């Protein structure tokens, strides 16, 4: 078997593109990295493997702890980390979910083709930039009261439908129909509410973006048709999360764990992994607050969707957005923990996804930190519209490389708790990116060489998000497809990009 | 007091040093502001004051910086020119932070979001450590004098 050594870590390729991290005795469960050798070499350049090892040492972990092919160093969990913990004997980790709760991405279809947009890119990107608040300050699409905020936290997309920001079909094309019923407003602090009230419908900064794209390749005609996608079609991608509200909730609960469960915190491999023991009052409280933040993030992306639809109707002189066929294809979450039932094998130390023994259904807290749910065809939680083909999985790439739409693969439940990658994955630090790139130069080159029109609140953000700072998204998707956890349906290429 | 921005794959870190504990808190806060803005900071804005209490030095630093992000979002200002004093607990009480900053209106600058303060790799080291000439470890990389406090904080971007 092939091996790979990196900075104190030895990995063995136990099957093609599946690498087992050597056991040091500190792990509760095995750790696996899904990657080809080239991606593994990139993944191993920072603390990703140490962070994965730490996750594998958490109490109640169900085997294995996983790093997806786009993985890189985060805080606590690696980004691209997938870990499941028993909902009775394990834990739930605010550190594992991260600050940007339900950071995620959605895709809108249109009836436009690239020819319809060509020549109007500058007007379109300017109009989108004006319509969607981004960066710091600037408010949100909805100038909300605290009562609006509470309704959004509790009801998610349902509130948007009532307020005219969504149509019922949007709800049907969103994970959990855009509403986590476990949301608990009493578990959300006043500070979190204060931060969220002025940010309802705002993009933020960092790697968040709004991108107009065109479909360049179709790999699976039948599934593409089921998703409403065809070659040369124009689509829109929206990537953002729960803004200051989610950030504050995570901060609040990290501190509460420190104060209320110091012994449990001390038992964890690393303080960044701060977790509440399953069954504790704090675990229930965090789950309720996290679900409220999940609802808020869906509302946030929906409000931006509304602004995008109105803007397209204006720019393309349509009577309304419906005339442009701007339907929500799907909305996927990247940073969440979720109660899910999985078929696992009981072992001496707990439970495992792998093994030949009798399978039992266990409720788990599945943490996806920079990873996407990728349920296969037939799974009851896949929306009815896509149940025959599998859940749409949107994998955004850099603003110069394009993105993919996959469908949940037939092997995903057995390999990855029904998960795959969430993007290309960073390769270069933000400070190094700013040393190597100038925002204006990147912007000019993308327009001159690739006909990609970029507008951002900050030139530094363009430099930090330059195409060269990301891994090769084709490699990431190849690994996902080869392992059967996510199968390519279409590839898209950027036309216009708005960044915070 | 001084600070420097340090590399982190997806996020950003601030290394800071000062001749007092309060000074190093303020230096990290100035580094946090610098991570959000690349342009010159305009000489506008009103003073804001905050105070926090926490059970440890590190928790006090975490709460202080998180509070500044809260004020940024709620008041719509970027806290710059930060100054802080930190009082040690007496008789088993909390560490107390009293701080001020100049809140530059966000509509006067092109600023980028910085999501949160993390405990990841956080270090807050008392005087006595090596200077930057003697060690390259993150918190000490900006420590100019052995009697300085040093800090290293990773922020989620």
From TrEMBL, chain A:
Reactions that this protein is recorded to catalyse: a 3'-end 2',3'-cyclophospho-ribonucleotide-RNA + a 5'-end dephospho-ribonucleoside-RNA + GTP + H2O = a ribonucleotidyl-ribonucleotide-RNA + GMP + diphosphate + H(+); a 3'-end 3'-phospho-ribonucleotide-RNA + a 5'-end dephospho-ribonucleoside-RNA + GTP = a ribonucleotidyl-ribonucleotide-RNA + GMP + diphosphate
What organism does this protein naturally occur in? Halobacterium salinarum
Whichever gene encodes this chain, its name is rtcB
Q: Which GO terms describe its biological process?
A: tRNA splicing, via endonucleolytic cleavage and ligation
Matching entries from InterPro entries are given as: RtcB, RtcB-like_sf
* Cofactor names: Mn(2+)
- Keywords for the protein's UniProt record, in alphabetical order: GTP-binding, Ligase, Manganese, Metal-binding, Nucleotide-binding
Entry superkingdom: Archaea
Cite a single Pfam family from the UniProt record. Answer: RtcB
Subunit and interaction comment: Monomer.
Does the record carry Plastid as a key word? no
UniProt lists the family membership as follows: Belongs to the RtcB family.
Q: What is its EC number?
A: 6.5.1.-
Q: How is the cofactor bound?
A: Binds 2 manganese ions per subunit.
Gene3D superfamilies named in the record = tRNA-splicing ligase RtcB (3.90.1860.10)
Q: Which residues bind Mn(2+) 2?
A: 239, 334
Binding of Mn(2+) 1, residues: 100, 208
Lineage of the source organism?
Archaea, Methanobacteriati, Methanobacteriota, Stenosarchaea group, Halobacteria
Please report the name of this protein according to its UniProt entry: tRNA-splicing ligase RtcB
**Residues the entry annotates as binding GMP:** 207-211, 334-335, 396-399, 403, 422-425, 499
Spell out the catalytic residues: 422
* Function of the protein: Essential for tRNA splicing and maturation. Acts by directly joining spliced tRNA halves to mature-sized tRNAs. Joins RNA with 2',3'-cyclic-phosphate or 3'-phosphate ends to RNA with 5'-hydroxy ends.
Molecular-function annotations in GO:
GTP binding; metal ion binding; RNA ligase (ATP) activity; RNA ligase (GTP) activity
Automatic annotation (TrEMBL), chain B:
Query: Does the UniProt entry include the keyword Flavoprotein?
Result: no
A Pfam entry, by short name: Archease
Which GO terms are recorded in the biological process aspect for this UniProt protein?
tRNA processing
GO MF annotation, one: metal ion binding
Archease domain: residues covered: 3-157
Which organism encodes this protein? Answer: Halobacterium salinarum (Halobacterium halobium)
Gene3D superfamilies noted in UniProt: Archease domain
The UniProt family comment states: Belongs to the archease family.
Determine if Metal-binding is one of this entry's keywords.
Answer: yes
State the protein's name: SHS2 domain-containing protein
> What UniProt keywords are attached to this protein's entry?
Calcium, Metal-binding, tRNA processing
């Amino acid at each position: 078997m092939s091996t790979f050594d990196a900075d104190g870590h030895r990995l063995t390729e136990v099957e093609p593109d599946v690498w087992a991290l050597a056991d040091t005795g500190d792990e509760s469960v095995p750790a696996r990295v899904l990657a080809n050798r080239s991606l593994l070499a990139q993944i191993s350049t920072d603390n990703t493997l140490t962070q994965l090892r730490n996750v594998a040492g958490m109490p109640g972990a169900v085997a294995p702890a996983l790093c997806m092919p786009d993985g890189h160093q985060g805080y606590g969990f690696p980004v691209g980390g997938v870990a499941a913990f028993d909902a009775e004997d394990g834990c739930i980790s605010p550190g594992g979910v991260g600050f940007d709760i339900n950071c995620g991405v959605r895709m809108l279809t249109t009836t436009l083709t690239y020819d319809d947009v060509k020549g109007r890119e500058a007007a379109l990107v300017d109009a989108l930039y004006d319509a969607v608040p981004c960066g710091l300050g600037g408010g949100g699409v909805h100038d909300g009261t605290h009562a609006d905020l509470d309704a959004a936290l509790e009801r998610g997309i349902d509130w948007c439908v009532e307020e005219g920001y969504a149509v019922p079909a949007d709800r049907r094309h969103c994970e959990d129909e855009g509403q986590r019923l476990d949301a608990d407003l009493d578990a959300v602090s006043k500070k979190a509410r204060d931060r969220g009230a002025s940010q309802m419908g705002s993009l933020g900064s960092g790697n968040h973006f709004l991108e107009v794209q065109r479909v360049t390749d179709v790999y699976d005609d039948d599934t593409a048709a089921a998703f409403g996608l065809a070659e040369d079609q124009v689509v829109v991608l929206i990537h953002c999360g729960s803004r200051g509200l989610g950030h504050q909730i995570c901060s609040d609960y990290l501190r509460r764990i420190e104060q209320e469960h110091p012994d449990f915190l001390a038992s964890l491999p690393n303080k960044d992994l701060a977790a509440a023991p399953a069954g504790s009052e704090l675990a229930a409280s965090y789950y309720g607050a996290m679900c409220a933040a999940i609802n808020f993030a869906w509302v946030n992306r929906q409000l931006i969707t509304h602004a995008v639809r109105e803007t397209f109707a204006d720019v393309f002189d349509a009577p309304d957005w419906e005339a442009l066929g701007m339907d929500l294809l799907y909305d996927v979450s990247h940073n969440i923990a979720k109660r899910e039932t999985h078929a696992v094998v009981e072992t001496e130390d707990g439970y495992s996804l792998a093994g030949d023994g009798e399978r039992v259904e266990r409720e788990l807290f599945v943490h996806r930190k920079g990873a996407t749910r990728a349920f296969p065809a037939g799974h009851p939680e896949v929306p009815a519209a896509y149940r025959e083909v599998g859940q749409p999985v949107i994998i955004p790439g850099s603003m110069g490389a394009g993105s993919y739409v996959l469908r949940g693969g037939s092997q995903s439940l057995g390999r990855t708790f029904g998960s795959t990658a969430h993007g290309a994955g960073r390769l270069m630090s933000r400070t190094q990116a700013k040393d190597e790139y100038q925002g204006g130069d990147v912007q000019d080159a993308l327009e001159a060489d690739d006909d990609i029109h970029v507008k951002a609140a900050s030139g530094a953000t363009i430099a930090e998000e330059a195409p060269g700072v990301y891994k090769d998204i084709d490699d990431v998707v190849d690994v996902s497809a080869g392992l059967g956890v996510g199968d390519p349906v279409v590839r898209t290429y950027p036309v216009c990009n708005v960044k915070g | 007091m001084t600070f420097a921005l340090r590399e982190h794959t997806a996020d950003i870190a601030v290394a800071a040093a000062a001749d007092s504990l309060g000074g190093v808190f303020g230096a990290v806060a100035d580094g946090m502001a610098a991570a959000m803005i690349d342009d010159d900071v305009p000489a506008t804005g009103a003073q804001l004051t905050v105070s926090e209490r926490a059970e440890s030095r590190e928790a006090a630093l975490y709460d202080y910086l998180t509070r500044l992000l809260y004020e940024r979002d709620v008041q719509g200002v970027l806290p710059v020119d930060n100054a802080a004093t930190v009082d040690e607990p007496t008789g088993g009480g909390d560490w107390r932070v009293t701080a001020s900053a100049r809140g530059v209106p966000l509509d006067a600058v092109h600023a980028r979001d910085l999501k949160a303060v993390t405990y990841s790799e956080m270090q807050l080291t008392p005087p006595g450590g090596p200077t930057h000439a003697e060690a390259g470890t993150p918190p000490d990389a900006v420590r100019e004098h052995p009697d300085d406090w040093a800090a290293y904080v990773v922020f989620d971007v």
